[in-house]
Amino acid sequence: MDYQKIRNKIAEGKAIVEKYKDETPQPVLEVCYSMFDINEMLVDKLEELDNKISKNSRNSSRPPSKDENLPKRNQSLRGKSGKKSGGQDGHSGSTLKKVENPNTVIQHPLKGKCKCGQNLSQLTSTMHSSRQVFEVEIVNTVTELLPPTQWSPLFSIKISPSVTG
Predict the structure, then answer these.
(1) Overall domain count for the chain
(2) CA-to-CA distance for 123 and 117, rounded, in angstroms?
(3) What whole-number distance in Å separates Cα of residue 29 and Cα of residue 52?
(4) Is pLDDT above 90 for 62?
(5) Average pLDDT of the residues in 41-65
(6) Are 55 and 45 in contact (CB under 8 A)?
(7) How far apart are CA 10 and CA 46, in angstroms?
(8) How confident is the model at residue 114 (pLDDT cuts 50, 70, 90)?
(9) Is the residue at 120 inside a domain?
């Protein structure tokens, strides 16, 4: 939008009112001048808002957190598929099964006191529920390759084979 053209039109209107101000009643002149002032203020505000909207973190020094109406970078731009989240019907899921002989068994004793005042560690437990935790170990193995290196007596150069692991 060309705000300078709008300001020029307002100035033209003022010039016309000034030209005929002797023939125009005073209340009409006051209304005209106040309308010109209001229009100038509105054009200034509109230009300010237009400049503010057109600037973002990509084309100015504004930080990305001040951007408005832009999707956040971690926000998916993909639309909804209409399916529920999680495993879908017909998909055969799998989970880790309990092993019969785990490497380590840790028994957690009861601590504290019962409502009746008896020490819980002295009671015999009859019901056991268990869960197993599978821990994956990542082993870092480093292999150093040492190819033989020899000097050629004839050409006085070093000879070493190309070895790749």
Answers:
(1) 1
(2) 12
(3) 35
(4) no
(5) 84
(6) no
(7) 15
(8) confident
(9) no
20 contacts 32 by C-beta, under 8 angstroms: no
Tokens of 26: 């005073």
Say which residue, 70 or 21, is predicted with more confidence: 21
Q: Does 11 map to a domain?
A: yes
Phi then psi dihedrals of residue 146, to 5 deg: -120, 90
- In three-state form (DSSP H/G/I as H, E/B as E, the rest C), the secondary structure along the chain is CCHHHHHHHHHHHHHHHHHCCCCCCHHHHHHHHHHHHHHHHHHHHHHHHHHHHHCCCCCCCCCHHHCCCCCCCCCCCCCCCCCCCCCCCCCCCCCCCCCCCCCCCCCCCCCCECCCCCEHHHCCCCCCCCCCCCCCCCCCCCCCCCCCCEEECCCCEEECCCCCC
Of residues 150 and 42, more confidently modeled: 42
Q: Is residue 13 part of a domain?
A: yes
Higher-confidence position of 151 and 11: 11
According to the model, what pLDDT value does residue 106 have? 84
